[in-house]
Amino acid sequence: MVLELAAEPAELGFDASRLERIDRHFARFVDDGRLPGWQIVVTRRGNVVHHSRYGHSDVEAGKPVEADTLWRIFSMTKPVTSVAAMMLYEEGAFELTDPISRWLPEFAQPRVYVKGSAINPLTEPATEPIRVWHLLTHTSGLTYGFHHAHPVDAMYREAGFEWGAPSGLDLSAVTEKFAELPLVFQPGSEWNYSVSTDVLGRFVEVVSGQSLAEFFTERIFRPLGMADTSFGTDDLDRLAALYTPEPGTRKAVRNDAFGQSGVGKPDYFSGGGGLVSTAADYHRFTQFLLRGGELDGVRLLSPRTVAHMTSNHLPGGVDLEAFGRPLFAEMPFNGFGFGLGFSVLLDPVKAKALSSPGEYAWGGAASTAFWVDPAAELTALFFTQLLPSSTHPIRQYLRQLVYQALVD
């Protein structure tokens, strides 16, 4: 699939000379070694208004970024898993308030950390079951090993869950391991970026009777024409190399150990971060969202469901700064709430963002990102392969550069 410019920028409310600032700015990230290469797509009213690429997908091999380069999108998998779950919801398979233990009995009696060390924690029974909406909103009490902020995080790492999972475990086995670990807090009481969406992926498997890979391919990717999106790939010639920042200089250094993620078929299908995709494919996913659950005559969700998913679901309508733990996530906390699988912009002034209220978004660990702005009928996508995404303020720069070029 080819991304083609559909109209002159002025026809879509953009200043062409101002759009050029995007590429000039991010070219510097490559020229000084901070990024290996990148690909950017901006659309307005369903039309591609800006598509550019620069640098290399594999610096050492001298391979330039191509239109069909494959990128590890990591946590940009999460919105896809959330869509899968809500497709089943629309079929009446469950209610959002249902305890997940109805389908995942390993979560029948979760325990919650009270105090103590990772080696000898004191726990208590959960007073509230983990419900489906807790998984969708990251309010389940689950966590990530890479947070390095809580004794339970250390317990995840000890169990082999920091950046990935122990080899040989499928999604069912991984979920059972998560259920053996205590929760960081009582379900529904806080927001914490976590493996919730991986558990949601297993939930989709049990409810649908299909593996997550089968469900994605048959129910989402094939209908939407996303032929290049999958859990891992054998097309290594198109798969970009992965880089991490060198301590001190923060220049991108190839990291083939981390780069094994995305190579070949994985042992388990991570609904929280396992997909490989292209800019053209994920562009189609964002257009499906922008159009309220339909693309090219194929409807997977109703407009009402998409609107519900992209509303703020945090109690009292507060933002992540007020309800979330001050840990890493793929988006800022100030002025942003959280829906069913997406961050939701509540207050652009508080967020110091030029975007519109109601914008929804997420990103991936290798510095990929997307957002959908329904008010401006705009989408933007950024692809590169630098892990972690907190290394450079790429997403903040991209927002201000895209919106300064929008002049209507």
UniProtKB/TrEMBL annotation:
Query: What InterPro entries does the database record attribute to this sequence?
Result: Beta-lactam-related, Beta-lactam/transpept-like, Diverse_Enzym_Activities
Domain Beta-lactamase-related: start-end pairs: 22-401
User: Which Pfam family name is an example for this entry?
Assistant: Beta-lactamase
Q: Which PANTHER family match?
A: BETA-LACTAMASE FAMILY PROTEIN (AFU_ORTHOLOGUE AFUA_5G07500) (PTHR43283:SF3), BETA-LACTAMASE-RELATED (PTHR43283)
Record's protein name? CubicO group peptidase, beta-lactamase class C family
